[in-house]
Amino acid sequence: MPDLPSPKDATESALHAECWDAVLSYADLCTAGSSAARELAEEAFALGVREIRAAEAGASRGRRTPRLPAIPLMLTAVRTTAASWEADGLGHRLDPDLRLWLNSDKAARYTGPPLRRPIALRGLRDLQEPDAALLWLTEVEALPSTVVARRLGLDPALVSEELDQVRSLFRDRCHRNHLDTPLDEECRKYARLLDAVTRSAPAAETPEDLTRHLATCVDCAEAAGCLRLNGGELPAALAGGVIGWGGLAYLERRRRAAEARLGTRRSEPVSPGYGEPAENATRARIVRGSLLAAAVALSGLALVVSMMPFGGSADDTARGDVDALPVADSGLPLPAAGPSSSAPVSPSTGGPASASPSASAPGTPSATGTETRADRKNPGPQGASTATADESGETGDTDETAESGTAGPDRSAAPLCRVRYDLRDQWQDGFQAVVTVTTVRALDTWQVSWSFRDGQRVTRMWDANVVRKGPRVVATAADYNRSVAAGGTLTFGFIGTWQGRNGAPHGFTLNGHDCVIT
Q: What global pTM score does this model have?
């Protein structure tokens, strides 16, 4: 693969086999282009290798210091390298939001006093490295238990039990670190209450005063995410606390990558035995092909039949008159009013327009009470709105369906795309969402746009590029996901801000075509 750096020895080979995909994924979030992403990933990977070697050298001399597992260590190396770029004048190659973050107090927490660093980072570092790796690979990388067991040399049957024990250990470390953090009296009071609420199984209802406190206190809110083991908050707490900027976006990317790997495995044919599945699959393909061909043939026949002229005189057929009757003309006079006739309405009186001999065309009945050419509408699909000509030559729109009292067929074209909007997470003033679009046609590139109802703003996006921000959001394809097969899907996610209300967006389009929201 061209994006992989050349390993220098067996240690680096093992590390880039395990970590490179994660490093490049996070580097892509941090940069403004694919070439910058690769350079940042390569520098960060080299930095991570040096840190691992230094830790191993210290351990061999009896100075064992706690360190993160390989993948989160490499991801923190990406963040450190990005900070170096910003300091060295290369910040223009980084994501603009990352640059703001790097120059804020949030980034300073990762290099400041140890007791002020994020609780999840301190808790993960306090675990034994194999335990921390088990927790990270399962919760953040979203790997199946069989894959985790193979990587860590564990018994697959015991992975679930060991994971429960590691979660409890991590919770205890985070609770201790929370109490060790310099807290004011109010936070210390709520720290004990938070421990009691999150320790109970099932989790007790959070008191209202604690909820208000968590909405305003960063340290206690971080601790809550680490202490709630059964509320689904642990993956986000780990990713956000250890990585920092872009943690939620990275978490979503890794989950989608894991789902794609599992989907690929499930799509492989499973052989019940004796070599029959391949033969059955071939037979099934033949049957499906035959049914499809038959359906196409019947559709073509129906189209031909619908276009054939019915009834009318030979003169009308030869003349090709656009006023030919849309139904069989038996030559009998038609009633002036009834369920199957549509008399034009006089614009002046609001009642039926009277037929006059002067309005009669040659070859059509003109007696009073019979339908003349002026009384007929231009033929068209039944139920469609067509134009009628009055004596002055002006035209007006008339709806045959409304006049005849019968419902016409649905003429709306089949949608070219379907959209699913998933609100994955929401907090006090922000949210995370994922957009999945299914396209009927094959695409060489794509552009998805939508509008927010409540003034939400997109602040960060992955797997797509934000062209214009504001009430109307336009997302364009990234360099690596421009092509989409017919019937395929494209997916991207983003972080946004909201105030007051966070309603679902509307008006989704794909390359200018309206999409159906599912």
A: 0.54
